[in-house]
Specification:
The protein is α/β, with parallel strands linked by helices. Helix content is 41%, strand content 18%. Helix 1 runs parallel beside helix 2 and helix 1 crosses helix 8 (236-252). The chain binds nicotinamide-adenine-dinucleotide and UDP-4-deoxy-4-formamido-beta-L-arabinopyranose.
């Protein structure tokens, strides 16, 4: 199939391009490079030994999308494009709502016009209310988001669910990612955050490589196994395979449906630091700091629905995630800026 991949130059998008090409699909990427580098796509081509069609531009540019649909016989789309930095969304809500909602709307409008009605959407575990018991299933309560970024995912899910309800020809998979980490095993592509990383794994790997002095562990008094926050970390290549599985599902099913993409296992911050040091035989200096506002103690998935309906399951281990994150970081200490 010819798959339109918005945000395909980004972290998850680039890894998904590799899996799509390996599965025999064609990859057509639209990305404005707001948070990525075109070099990532060159490396995707190197890994897969196949070409990626790349259109540099904004998904909210309806004329650009029309041109892509004119020039390529698109069968379905994966919509990764969006802004994803939680604290930035608090300080720049208008940018986040504009980018994340209007990109989804524009893409759907063009797809509907072209009669292309299969869509995979990048959602997030952040759509779940913090009041839920663990593990989170797709039936857990959503909403009560704690930041504008989370609301943009919640609203996009609502929008897509309403579109599928109004027109029974749509097939939409809402993929709720837990905490993606790791990199392609080649070390050629990986996560390359701009500025100081907000997320745990890039902070750990940048500390290990000497770009940061030490990791601050946000909170040591949570009601968890060792007092530090617990999350469901998933290898980005497993996540990428989940998208290929979702496309298979869309061929057989109509309507909108949500799927958790996680491992179902909770790992604490201290366990992650230890696993990283052990897997890579490298030191990660850290100190304890106060809790980070907005953080929950524990968050992990019940991924059984994805296993049953998408026939997909995360296979890589925590050691794989730590090893591959480090491999990428070590080979590319300054990310794609090298
Ligand atoms: P990323 O920033 O690496 O990738 C997003 C890509 O979209 C970037 O290449 C960026 O340049 C592009 N982009 C942004 N706005 C655009 C626009 N208007 N037009 C064209 N391109 C645009 O982020 P990622 O980690 O790969 O995340 C991909 C998607 O998954 C995002 O929607 C994100 O919200 C979602 N998600 C990410 C995580 C995570 O922890 N990484 C977790 C849950 C959900
Ligand atoms: C993980 C754990 C931190 C950094 C975020 C978004 C979420 C989703 C994924 C997109 C927590 C601790 C972190 C550090 C630390 N993104 N930590 N020191 O917060 O679970 O989720 O990314 O949808 O929406 O909120 O991930 O990697 O930031 O934090 O101690 O320097 O690591 O407190 O317990 P989080 P994270």
């Amino acid at each position: 199939m010819n798959v339109l991949i918005t945000g395909g130059a980004g972290y998850i998008g680039s890894h998904t391009c590799v899996e799509l090409l390996n599965a025999g699909h064609a990859a057509i990427v639209v990305d404005n490079l707001a948070n990525s580098s075109a070099a990532a796509l060159k490396r995707v081509e190197r890994i897969a030994g196949k070409e990626v069609a790349f259109y540099e531009g904004d998904v909210r540019d309806e004329a650009l999308l029309d041109r892509v649909f004119d020039e390529r016989d698109i069968d379905c789309a994966i919509h990764f494009a969006g802004l994803k930095c939680v604290p930035e969304s608090v300080s720049k809500p208008m940018e986040y709502y504009d980018n994340n909602i209007n990109s989804t709307l524009t893409l759907c409008r063009v797809m509907a016009r072209r009669g292309v009605k299969r869509l995979v959407f990048s959602s997030s575990a952040t759509v779940y209310s913090a009041q839920n018991a663990m593990p989170l299933s797709e039936n857990s309560v959503t909403g009560d988001c704690t930041n504008p970024y989370g609301w943009t995912k919640y609203i996009s899910e609502r929008l897509l669910t309403d579109i599928a309800a109004a027109d029974g020809e749509w097939s939409i998979a809402l993929l709720r990612y837990f905490n993606p980490i790791g990199a392609h095993e080649s070390g050629l592509i990986g996560e390359d955050p701009r500025g100081i990383p907000n997320n745990l794994m890039p902070y750990i790997s940048q500390t290990a490589v000497g770009r940061r002095d030490e990791l601050t562990v946000y909170g040591s008094d949570y009601d968890t196994k060792d007092g530090t926050g617990v999350r469901d970390y998933i290898h980005v290549m497993d996540l990428a395979k989940g998208h290929v599985a979702a496309i298979g599902y869309l061929l057989e099913h109509r309507g909108a449906a949500a799927f958790n993409l996680g491992t179902g296992k909770g790992v604490s911050v201290l366990e992650m630091v230890e696993a990283f040091q052990r897997a890579n035989e490298v030191a990660v200096p850290f100190r304890f700091g106060p809790r980070r506002p907005g953080d929950v103690a524990t968050c992990y998935a019940d991924a059984s629905r994805s296993e049953k309906l998408l026939h997909w399951r995360a296979e890589k281990t925590l050691e794989d995630m730590c090893r591959d994150s480090w491999h990428w970081q070590r080979l590319n200490p300054q990310g794609y800026g090298e």
